[in-house]
Structures are given as structure tokens and as C-alpha cells.
Write a structure and sequence with these properties.
Blueprint lengths: L8 E3 L5 E3 L18 E6 L6 H4 L28 E4 L17 E8 L8 H7 L21 H9 L8 E4 L17 E3 L2 E2 L6 H9 L10 H13 L4 H31 L14 H17 L5 E5 L21 H5 L2 H27 L13 E6 L15 E5 L8 E10 L1 H10 L20
Parallel strand pairs: 3-9, 3-10, 5-12, 6-9
Antiparallel strand pairs: 1-2, 4-12, 5-11, 7-8, 10-11
Helix pairs in contact: 4-7, 6-7, 7-9
Length: 448
């Protein structure tokens, strides 16, 4: 094992494998120059409450009805291109305070809705595709190969998984189609299915086969790990211990939620038992798995759906409400439920911040952090959940390191295609492409 890079596997009994983070004591001399570039997308369903998220809209009239392509005339944003220092964060964005200098708020990004498909299904499934309407033949969806797979062609060729797709939909009712619960596609009609179950994702990452029926993964590799640990310096020994502690914590949390599922299944509820699982714990557990996968080089490209579109089955937003609530149901009664919806938006932002903090804590071979080397985008396919608008989408881009200029509010002119951002990110990740979907150019203000 000595002399191998951070992407090598520590193999235990029976074929179980556990990927290691970068360790200076066993790294090849050139490891520091080979820090990987990553891209991750954090998708928020049902849009956001505009007055809580967008600067300058706190006192605007709450929009009513299903208006479809609502223009920004309801807001007070400057319709022209502008770049300002990001100073005062709106209520929904306040959890980002400590990362204010490491993010860009990007407003004015639009997608065009193609008539004939469900508004929620299309906003999710076509989010990373952004194909122009009516250009994809043989399908009712403007859905082409998505950005994550385009980027993975360049940065994922040598990783065990070219991409990984995470979904925090804990329900088993499958009341909606695949278009509501997936944003990653190999191509038109070819889904890259997201994994909802933390245990299934854990198995996929760590190849436990059937061995875990007897002992968990960390037990399997600890015997080999002890011999390796003796060869590590003090700092690497600490990092090594922290890494195994994090894996152990993931296992413990999975066991806890699975035990809770078993107990809940014995109780008669109006809602399915999954509605009562702690929402934040579920999201953070899936997020921990995503961070580990990026940290260890199992993949360089991920998509992460914090929840599915529409899916009226309720969730237990712990700390917010006394009983499970339907995010989609609340969104269509925004006038009466504005305060509750603002709580949900902030709750989702807190989960994004949790993952930013996790990435920030991971040190890379060259002394940078995982966040420095990851373009990590928060976004939604709707600008407002109550009106189903496809324009002026809520977008935040964090990380990206030296190639990204951060700490800005970039307000694009009305009608700027979302694909302009995807083209910009693709080129920042090394993709040689002059156009993506309906893009008209790049967002130069993002580049250092």
C-alpha cells in the first residue's frame, strides 16, 4: 500500500473496500499537484418564497395564482446586468453569513417552459439540461444530456463512479413519475437514477457485499488499518482517526434511522411512517455520504436533490412543526402560510450550509479544502413555488477556488438563459465547448 495515492483502497476481509482521504505520509510526491476538481449540485424543490430570498423584494405583494412565466415586474430588481459586493443577506440566506465571501448570488437566470408537460416534473428533470423548447424530437420533454455527465466526461473518467446521484426522498409511495425525483440524465429518455436510501448508497460506495450481515465495514478494515496507521505521522494519524470516526458516525446514524423506521411502522398514522422520520437528519446523512465520496475520489461529480418536486406526501421538518407537513401543499397557500414557508426555505438553506461546513473542514493535498476545489451550486427549477414561474431562479454558487471570483451578487439581464451558467461551469471544469443548450454566452463576473 505504501506510496499509493489517496484514491487507492484500503482492503479488508472478504473483499470489502474503504476509500481513504489524502494522507501525506503515504502520498506520492506529485500528489499535491493532482488535486481533483469537483462539481456538485444541491437542488431545492418547489422554488422559494421570493420576498425571503431575493434582495429588494421583502415588501413586495405576495403573488397569487398559477401565473406560469411571471416576469420580474413584481420585484424591484435592477433589470440590467450588475455586479455588486454581497453585503446584506436576506432572511433565507442568513445562514450563509460565514461563507459570504465564498459564494456568488446569481439572479436573473431563466428557463423557458415547454407546454404539454407537468410544470413541477419539467422544472426538475430539465434543470441541468436546459434544452430549448421543442428541439428534442420524440419526447414531450425539453430534456437532453445533463451538465453533470458532460463534465464527468472530463473529470470523471478515472474515478470509480463517473457521477453519483443522491435523493433525499425517504418515501416509498412513488406517487409521482421519475421526472419529479431525478435531475440527472445520460440523455433523452435515459435516466441516471438517484439513490434515496442511505444504506443502498453506502453499499454502493463501499462494496460491502454480504459481509455486513456479520460485521460492519469499519470492523472489516480496522485490522488492516492498524498496521497502516503505525506508518503515519502524527497529523495523518489524527486525520485517519477522524475519517474513520466519520464513517462510524454514518453507520450509527443509518442504524438509528432504520430502527426508527421499524418502530414507526408499528404505529397507525394517517400518513406513511416515512413522514415522521427527522427530515434534517435524513438530509445530513445523505450529505455526509456525498462528502465522503467526493473527499476520497470515489467520484468528482454529484447531484443532490434535497427533496422531490410536488410529491404531496408530508415530511417531518423537525424543529419547525408539530406534525408532518406537505411543502407543495403549503406553497399553494402562500398568503396564509408565508411564515411557515419561510421556515422551510431557511431549513433547506441550513442543510446546504451544513455541507459547506463539511467541505470546508476537509483538507486537500495542497493545503486547500474540498470546498475550494468544488463548484457547489444551490438552485431550484422554479423561481416561486406558488406561481410556477420558470424565470428569475434562485441560484447560489459556492467554492471553486482561485478560478472563481466570489462574494458577489451578480444580477443578469432579464431573459438570460440558465444555460449560460451551466456553460460557464462546464468551461471552468475543463470542458471545451462553446455552447450548451440555449446558452448565449458565459457569466464573466464569476471568473477570477
Amino acid at each position: 500500500m505504501r506510496g499509493n495515492t489517496r484514491r487507492d483502497f484500503l482492503r479488508g476481509i472478504g473483499g470489502a473496500a474503504l476509500a481513504l482521504p489524502w494522507l501525506e505520509s503515504i502520498a506520492a510526491p506529485a500528489a499535491a499537484s493532482r488535486v481533483a476538481r469537483r462539481m456538485a449540485h444541491f437542488y431545492v424543490p418547489i422554488g422559494v418564497v421570493r420576498r425571503g430570498f431575493f434582495p429588494g423584494e421583502a415588501d413586495d405583494v405576495i403573488p397569487k395564482g398559477n401565473l406560469g412565466q411571471l416576469r420580474r415586474s413584481l420585484g424591484k430588481q435592477d433589470p440590467n446586468y450588475s455586479v455588486k459586493k454581497l453585503e446584506h443577506l436576506t432572511p433565507t440566506m442568513q445562514p450563509l453569513e460565514r461563507f459570504k465571501s465564498e459564494i456568488n448570488l446569481i439572479t436573473g437566470m431563466d428557463r423557458t417552459f415547454q407546454q404539454g408537460t407537468d410544470v413541477h416534473a419539467q422544472c426538475a428533470s430539465c434543470y441541468l439540461s436546459s434544452a430549448p423548447p421543442y428541439t428534442i424530437k420524440g419526447t414531450a420533454w425539453p430534456l437532453d444530456r445533463t451538465l453533470d455527465h458532460l463534465v464527468a466526461d472530463v473529470v470523471g473518467a478515472k474515478t470509480p463512479f463517473s457521477t453519483l446521484e443522491f435523493s433525499c426522498n425517504s418515501h416509498k409511495d412513488n406517487k409521482e413519475s421519475i421526472y419529479f425525483d431525478n435531475i440527472s440524465w445520460y440523455g433523452t429518455g435515459h435516466l441516471a437514477p438517484s439513490i434515496r436510501d442511505p444504506r443502498k448508497m453506502y453499499h454502493r460506495l463501499f462494496s460491502t457485499r454480504e459481509i455486513d450481515k456479520y460485521r460492519d465495514v469499519t470492523d472489516l478494515v480496522l485490522e488492516d488499518a492498524r498496521s497502516l496507521k503505525r506508518d503515519l505521522g502524527y497529523e495523518d494519524g489524527q486525520k485517519f482517526a477522524e475519517y474513520f470516526d466519520s464513517i462510524r458516525a454514518i453507520e450509527v446514524q443509518m442504524d438509528r434511522l432504520e430502527q426508527m423506521k421499524g418502530e414507526l411502522s408499528k404505529v397507525k398514522f394517517d400518513e406513511p411512517p416515512e413522514a415522521y422520520l427527522p427530515r434534517g437528519e435524513y438530509i445530513r446523512l445523505m450529505g455526509d455520504l456525498m462528502v465522503v465520496a467526493l473527499q476520497t475520489g470515489l467520484t468528482n461529480v454529484t447531484t443532490f436533490m434535497v427533496g422531490p418536486e410536488r410529491w404531496d406526501t408530508p415530511y417531518k421538518f423537525e424543529g419547525l412543526f408539530d406534525k408532518p407537513r406537505s411543502h407543495h401543499g403549503m406553497s399553494h397557500n402562500q398568503t396564509k402560510m408565508i411564515d411557515d414557508l419561510l421556515k422551510v426555505d431557511r431549513f433547506h438553506m441550513e442543510q446546504y450550509v451544513y455541507l459547506l461546513e463539511r467541505m470546508k473542514s476537509v483538507e486537500e493535498a495542497d493545503g486547500s479544502t474540498l470546498l475550494d476545489n468544488t463548484l457547489f451550486t444551490y438552485g431550484s427549477g422554479l423561481g416561486d413555488g406558488s406561481t410556477h414561474q420558470y424565470n428569475d431562479l434562485p441560484i447560489i454558487v459556492a467554492g471553486g477556488g482561485k478560478e472563481t471570483k466570489s462574494g458577489q451578487h451578480i444580477n443578469m439581464p432579464e431573459g438570460t438563459p440558465l444555460a449560460n451558467l451551466w456553460l460557464t461551469q462546464a468551461k471552468m471544469m475543463g470542458v471545451e465547448k462553446e455552447r450548451f443548450a440555449d446558452s448565449t454566452g458565459e457569466i464573466g463576473a464569476m471568473k477570477a
